[in-house]
Design goal:
Structural class: alpha/beta
Number of helices: 16
CATH superfamily of the largest domain: tm_1862 like domain
Distance between the termini: 57 Å
Helix content: 25-40%
Strand content: 15-25%
Bound molecules: iron/sulfur cluster
Number of strands: 16
Number of domains: 2
């Protein structure tokens, strides 16, 4: 079949992870003691197809697909295993963590030391596949883009090795002119970085279902953490109607659950850092009208603590006979006010940096009381981190022992305003870092069984696969002890 633009991604991304977004983290683990065939089924099972095309696809791919269609360009998202069935002028590949250099991959690698993570392995597999090679043999141009586009600058030889014509860094909508150039047979730059961003009216609504019903509610973040690339982009919130259209697309495709995506869902519609109750209530009521089950991509402790009543209200909307809890990723990052001041000046706002550990504890109480279960992150090895900062983080984790959550420490990866700094590596871990990792592991082991029970409630198939995930956590613990990361 002939098409102008084929859009795809590797197998780890073209999956809905059994409808459990958090399981997507498993793709950043390296091959381990669980046989690959089983691991794949557990963490990135193949996406179901409808009329020969993926039922759901990563949101980023769906956005660019919609933009191209709106521009009158013939484009579709296809499964990476189906490339051989097409002839195309351009192949667009979406990458999340192409070489496994993202924070969760490097952390897994540091603990497990068993090779490149699955997401990197499957990205390479895509480029080595017969389907990809056939498309290239027929003259297709390859453009790669997505959150991991920056990684290719450190590995330029990879482009020639796999026939990648152009790597695009920036918001996907801004890549359309490059795709048009490729369609016209013009030469493409090896690397293209676009710092301009589309206005809201230039951002299309997806036309086909996204993985796990994810819909963006806005882009950008006002908190300005130095290690984060999101913060370099302006803040834009979408109107309700725009969000609603995408929910309808998902529901009409048979997707029953959805994720509201923003860097801080609680700040929806706001210019500053104080959540607005009316807007959050309206947004969640609308989401619950379409989806049986909803969750949030991200939220901040400071926003929870700033308006505690909002979480109570949202719990009343979300928690019902179809769902008992909801999740979000939340960055604790550190327990040290000094490090907050140096690296994340607006993280605690509207509170002072000195208040941050108390803010986290207070918010944790509100969250637990209202059936929200977050997966939290910490950053180890920030360039400005000192021993006293790590001690404060350890103290905070100790204080959070009754907080029903997972707390995942991640190694610092140079991004955002700190992109010129060096990576933090396992060899640089001090005794205090190890102690912090042990505290987090103990915290997680304390809660993982209960959270897994909550997570896999409902479908019969989930009760069958649940023990495998518990086994996987046990294996990480065992390996971490064996490698001396955990004592
Ligand atoms: S709060 Fe999160 S998204 Fe916002 S700048 Fe900080 S790390 Fe980035």
């Amino acid at each position: 079949m002939k098409i102008d633009v084929l859009l795809t991604c590797d197998r780890t991304l073209m999956s809905n992870h059994h409808g459990k977004e958090f399981l997507g983290f498993g793709t950043s683990a390296p091959p381990n003691w669980i046989p690959e065939l089983i691991f794949r089924q557990l963490f990135f099972p193949k996406m179901k197809k409808v009329d020969g095309l993926p039922w759901q696809a990563p949101y980023g791919l769906r956005k660019i697909e919609a933009k191209l269609i709106d521009e009158g360009i013939d484009a579709i998202v296809v499964d990476p295993d189906d490339l051989a069935g097409y002839k195309a002028k351009v192949i667009g590949i979406y990458v999340m963590d192409a070489f496994g250099w993202g924070p969760s991959s490097t952390t897994f690698a540091g603990i497990m030391k068993t090779g490149e993570p699955y997401l990197a392995k499957y990205f390479k597999k895509l480029l080595q596949s017969k389907g990809y090679k056939k498309l290239k043999a027929h003259g297709a141009k390859t453009i790669v883009g997505g959150p991991a586009a920056w990684q290719f600058r450190f590995k330029p030889e990879f482009l020639d090795e796999y026939g990648i014509d152009c790597v695009f860094e920036g918001e996907g909508e801004m890549a359309v002119h490059l795709i048009k150039k490729a369609l016209d047979g013009e030469e493409l730059p090896k690397f293209y970085k676009e710092s301009k961003v589309p206005a809201i009216e230039e951002i299309p609504e997806i036309k086909r279902a996204s993985v796990n019903g994810l819909v963006e509610i806005g882009r950008g973040c006002p908190r300005g953490c130095k290690f984060c690339s999101v913060t370099l982009r302006p803040l834009r919130w979408y109107p309700y109607e725009k969000i609603e259209k995408e929910m309808k697309v998902n529901v009409e495709a048979g997707v029953k659950g959805g994720i509201l995506h923003a860097e801080d869902v609680l700040l929806y519609g706001q210019r500053g850092v104080i959540p607005n109750e009316e807007k959050i209530v309206k947004l969640n009521e609308m989401a619950k009208k379409y989806y049986n089950i909803i969750s949030w991509s991200h939220a901040s402790f400071a926003a929870v603590a700033a308006k505690p009543k909002i979480i109570e209200k949202v719990a009343e909307i979300i928690c019902d006979e179809k769902q008992r809890w909801w999740g979000a990723e939340m960055g604790i990052e550190t327990g040290s006010p000094e490090l907050i001041k140096k690296a994340m000046p607006a993280k605690a706002k509207p509170f002072k940096p000195e208040e941050y550990p108390e803010v986290v504890k207070q918010a944790a109480g509100i969250i637990t009381d209202n059936n929200m279960i977050p997966a939290c992150t910490l950053i180890a090895g920030l360039p400005e981190e000192e021993e006293k900062d790590i001690i404060k983080t350890i103290e905070l984790i100790e204080d959070l022992k009754d907080f029903k959550s997972l707390i995942v420490p991640l190694f610092f990866v140079p991004m955002g305003k700190l992109k010129e700094k060096d990576w933090f590596r396992k060899e640089e871990m001090s005794e205090l870092h190890k102690e912090l990792f042990i505290k987090c592991m103990l915290h997680n082991l304390r809660w993982v069984k209960e959270i897994t029970n909550d997570y896999f409630r409902g479908k019969k198939v989930h009760s069958i696969i649940k023990p495998f995930y518990i086994l996987f956590v046990k294996l990480i613990e065992w390996q971490a002890k064996k490698k001396g990361v955990l004592e």
